[in-house]
Queue: 2 jobs
Job 1
Amino acid sequence: MSQLVKSNRSNRRGQSRSQKRENLSGAVQIIPGVRREIPTYELLSDEGLDLIEQNAALILKEVGVEFRGDPDALKLWRAAGADVKGERVRFEEGLVQSIIARSGRRSFIQHARNPKRSVELGGNNVVFAPAYGMPFVHDLDAGRRYGTLTDFQNLIKLTYASRWLHHSGGTICEPVDQPVNKRHLDMVYAHLRFSDKPFMGSVTTPERAEDSIEMARIVFGREFVDKNCVIMGNINMNSPLVYDRAMSGSLRAYARANQCPVVVPFILGGATGPVSMVAAVAQSLVEVMVGVALGQLERPGSPAVFGNFLTSVNLKSGSPTFGTPEPALGSFAAAQLARRIGLPLRCSGAFTSSKLPDAQAMQESVTSLYTALLCGANFILHAAGWLEGALTIGYEKLVLDADYLGAAHTFLKGLPVNFDKLALDAFKEVGPGGHFFGCAHTLAHYETAFHESELSDTNSFENWMDAGQLDSAQRANRYWKEVLDLYEPPPLDIAIDEELQAFMTNRKKNMPDIWY
Amino acid sequence: MSQLVKSNRSNRRGQSRSQKRENLSGAVQIIPGVRREIPTYELLSDEGLDLIEQNAALILKEVGVEFRGDPDALKLWRAAGADVKGERVRFEEGLVQSIIARSGRRSFIQHARNPKRSVELGGNNVVFAPAYGMPFVHDLDAGRRYGTLTDFQNLIKLTYASRWLHHSGGTICEPVDQPVNKRHLDMVYAHLRFSDKPFMGSVTTPERAEDSIEMARIVFGREFVDKNCVIMGNINMNSPLVYDRAMSGSLRAYARANQCPVVVPFILGGATGPVSMVAAVAQSLVEVMVGVALGQLERPGSPAVFGNFLTSVNLKSGSPTFGTPEPALGSFAAAQLARRIGLPLRCSGAFTSSKLPDAQAMQESVTSLYTALLCGANFILHAAGWLEGALTIGYEKLVLDADYLGAAHTFLKGLPVNFDKLALDAFKEVGPGGHFFGCAHTLAHYETAFHESELSDTNSFENWMDAGQLDSAQRANRYWKEVLDLYEPPPLDIAIDEELQAFMTNRKKNMPDIWY
């Protein structure tokens, strides 16, 4: 077989720039999400799920949720029949569920500016997006430092170039060199200019959410945006049981525009939630349902994603921990509950506490990501790049995780059983003690038989030595530089680009810089 | 909370040697296997499993299996009604299944010389054992080199010291400095002298298998051994569809002594099996069932383990690949088939192609090990230490994997749902916007709420910097040295030790050294 096909290595020599890009880049091969053909993993029994739902109903009724600084939200809740006292809202059994059941959507399309990259959220569809919200960036050369707009753009380019990341994400890192009140414009512009994949806008204030949506309108057209989802906002609520104005206001801004809030609790067991994962799952259910229902009150039928973010805490040091077994179990349970409600699910990601793209990083990240694949998540944010408990995104980590997502594509396709796959003739041809390398079945299938990683080294020890004895992070370091070097932006209509820039310039002109 | 309990770090200062051992070592805390309280993952439908079984039946009937150089095996098959032509044996539908069903055991105890460490194989029990069969060893200081008897003993000591490894394994590395025909004696002695966990003997010839069993008889008593399983032999058959004399003879030696053969195909898709995983699973079923049935013909009612070892091949280079998605899927299917037969299952492990304990190593190893946990494996050989496609065992890799097995213990316990776990009072006490650190539920549970890794760093970036900016392999390097330094052997009766040594001396004296 080794004579039949030249190795990747020798193939790469003498390639044209476009051939190289084709090998490295998803700009050529478009994969708009992947369908999960394997069953979900059902951890809890129906009885267990019932108990969690009953507990959630008691929390909704007896403890309630606070909406702080958002009188419009309180008004909507009052009109819907909730019990509103001050900023505290309590909910009779079944109220939020019935609001969601009445108008919540089981699945929807998020349109990309390149229609081939539009993704479906819900059902058996799985969409991978990179890490979100990190103030720091890391690479092997410069180590860890605050993220800049250049980092932001680089990371969007790397995400664009990976065929395995279907979605451009949102705040892939905080561009800390830009004013706090203006950087959302630069971020949304970077997604629209340097990628043509679907993306997420700002949520840090309702006004910035509206700016983000307005920029999407420039690209997609006002009318199209009113009827279709083209942008998401990641609404991280203030667990436990609080929505502040920034979050509920931004949530309502997305819903009002018929765009998609991803409603996500932020539960660190023992800190912003109980130390018991089962209780944290009930809390998660309460917090998400209330947020999703608020979106439906703002605009019935608007899209929404059921988010889940659970983790544990090292109770000796108080540090959050990631990729540990308890949140994996919790994610399975939360996913089962999300399926009962019937909303698209965001769950888990490539989580780790590690500061480096090392063994620990991948022990934790793969635990977390494998869980996401099996629990039935539809939208896997943080699927690539995450380091240090969401404080850092790593260049090497991003491409290593994205490479793993390639394997995940194969995994999600499952194991079809049919006559050709059973290959009885191959056994007859080869017989006891024979070799399958040259048999007809192998020759017919070898090119597509197995997924091949671009970054894992499967060479002999001697070849690996000759190639410089690199560990996988060092290979990833070479890889992302090669990808950035070959990057070419997707086309964008000049008039639209100018309109986007004019909008930004105008918005920036009218605000003084704020740096905190 | 951080005031309530001192960190691990400060606790460790000023500890006595025995306190340090208690923290580091499983010699104090004995965990004889772990029960899986979570459901298995059922990848294939009954129809899919039926098709694979039908294909296996056709392979058994039309292609058959060869037993080379083992006339006694052919005699047993002839007597059992199989179709024997030369060394080829073909099986009418249902023959091997009925032999297994008649006398195969659904579960059994493997006794350890310390009765507290005896393990149950089968049912929902899970037993973790270290890597097996590697000619090379690796550590960060000395790099990769051939294994020696000192390495063998060190690795057995590290395995003994890990509370998460229930089993001492077998050929943890090849002690290449010992003659090929004598090293099995040194290996079995090391398991018996430096550990008191259950272990595996030699399989490289039937005579060495018998030597291994004879040494077990010295320790456990001849009569006890005849009635109870105290030693296993890992029978790697010569896939496709061949047992040579070394393997079928050793298999029969273990069965004859009422000891346990672990019957394992060695299927590299595209080389020793077809490129289609579904077909490889059918092949696996054929090869294992024939081996297990042969053991039952040799001695009805003897214990056996259904083994499964599938992997893929990089069809460009011909290198085997590990921790990839296809064998993960294949393992789920093979495990479903093993459950239909009702035998204890050995499946998967911490597989990787990586030469180093790096990100790649753990991307692949965790994929493979997580699969083993969910597929329902009872005996997970290669659960710790594996590097470079089974060519190398790593000191750092061993302790990093073993640490991950700690998390696996928590994962396997699942998520019980009950009144206390639901913690409704905690929500009432804390309320919206509160903090769970100090609430009654947290105070009652914080010490046991979350599994804590010994090797993962969850500190702040600043604390991690102060501690030397070590990656996880570097921390593992410090850790295994500390464990070896604190190692103390379990007690062994002096008379028994002398008898073991006399047996070895005598056997060695009567053979010239063989080095190939």
Job 2
Amino acid sequence: MDSCTAGCYAVIFTSVRDAAEGDGYAEAADHMVELARQQPGFLGVESARGADGFGITVSYWESEEAIRAWKQHAEHAATREQGRARWYTTCTTRVARVERAYGWQRP
Amino acid sequence: MDSCTAGCYAVIFTSVRDAAEGDGYAEAADHMVELARQQPGFLGVESARGADGFGITVSYWESEEAIRAWKQHAEHAATREQGRARWYTTCTTRVARVERAYGWQRP
């Protein structure tokens, strides 16, 4: 995810998941990523979850406006409600403006 | 990690780890967290890594100055070099200013 280096926005979503296979979570999460990709201003998403159930997802957006539109997306809102009711015990969302980025890759 | 809600900074560090047990990584990572906790302006840290080796660590800081000081900390710099040589195949760091935060916890 190299397309957000400065002036773009990161939405940092941390959550604790009630681990239970076959509860529809994986399908819903994949579908949300697909749907996010289709939104105007979407730049990318990265996700990691450890065996302890704690996960971090960072999505990247061109503007605050794009973030707001995605938040208001009806299907996204409905899935968030499911998340609250069924999949997560704790969630935090932070919206942050990216100031700079750097990195490297082993050749 | 509720102490960074607005006006503070998030350092989003993503990495791909060359999985190998007993290479000193876990000890070094724990030690870096201990050391970070002692730095002025440190607000917290959250970390998740999946079985695929992709990980996200977000640390939270009061100011850009605090982030710079931690970056320049000699032991931190030496451990970063080890990370590059031994533990990671890809790393990206983003510094972002937190605009707002919200969340909930299941009662």
